[in-house]
Amino acid sequence: ANKKAFVWDVDDIATLRSKHHVCGIFTGTLPHLSQQNLFLGVPMVLMPEEVVFLVENEIAVLVDDPKAHLQPSIAELQRWSAQEKELTQLQLAQLAVAAKDSPEMSEEAVKKRKEREAKRKAAAAQAAAAAGESLFTPPADGAPPPQDSQYSMIIPASSTPFEWYNDSTCVYTTISSAKQAGLWEYPSNLQERAKCGVFRDLWEQGMFMGGGIRFGGDYLVYPGDPLRYHAHFSASILESPAFSLTPMEIVAHGRLGTVTKKSHLLCGWDDETKAVTYLSIEWAGFG
After folding, report:
1. Is 20 among the catalytic positions?
2. What 3-state DSSP class applies to 28?
3. Any idea which residues are catalytic in this one (predicted)?
4. Catalytic residue among 230, 261, 264, 278
5. Are 28 and 43 contacting, i.e. CB atoms less than 8 angstroms apart?
6. 222 is catalytic
7. Could you report the per-residue pLDDT of 35-74, keeping only the tens digit for each?
8. 262, 264, 274, 278: which is the annotated catalytic residue?
9. Reduced to 3 states, what is the DSSP secondary structure of residue 252?
10. Which of 172, 186, 219, 222 is catalytic?
11. Could you give the C-alpha distances from 97 to 34, 43, 151, in angstroms and in order?
12. What are the backbone dihedrals phi and psi of residue 179, each rounded to the nearest 5 degrees, phi first?
């Protein structure tokens, strides 16, 4: 969607990481914590090079997600609404059991909770009046609230279970077919082809790659899963083995790599032979 590739299914994310050395970047936040920057969740966004690699190796396909969401019928919406209400009631029952097993609160804590609930109810009533009738009906007022929120909802991690989701006509198994459909456009020039070629070459050597912009490169190169290893290299992609660098750039790469406890890796891509040459820079011999 919008020239970016997302992975929503948690099992797919685990498979990509454990079997294919592809980690992506998590971007999902909770609705009430939209500015959070730690412990992000689904969806996972893939780097363009990761997408090209996965599709070319027939590990993944590209789906035009907006086109896969068809207009749902009234019956489908009613069935979906009924399922969501059933899930809500199930969660309420589970939370009520958990509340009974938890220690009793003090009178002051109970008072504060009731005040918060009253404010939420008032705000919800105003929102409902402004938006019209909702598909969801909150639990009866007599139901004991087990936690700060009176009821919660499970948000599915993927839209594929929806009855109105149909991707049969918008799946692309090759990069060229996705480009012809206007869904994808990477790689479109020599620099992007060089990035894809270097990514593949490093992957074939067993490396894990992540974004390297914070360390002055195109990639961070890990010898194993980034959850277990620090990056050994920050890598910069050069369009050809004869690409020119100024002395100042070489000094900058060397000093930055030393400060961040990494070697800086210069990766030269030969677009004719499809081969990569590597040169590492690190500061040494001081003191």
Report:
1. no
2. strand
3. 222, 230, 262
4. 230
5. yes
6. yes
7. 666 678 889 999 999 999 999 999 999 999 999 989 999 9
8. 262
9. helix
10. 222
11. 30, 32, 14
12. -65, -40
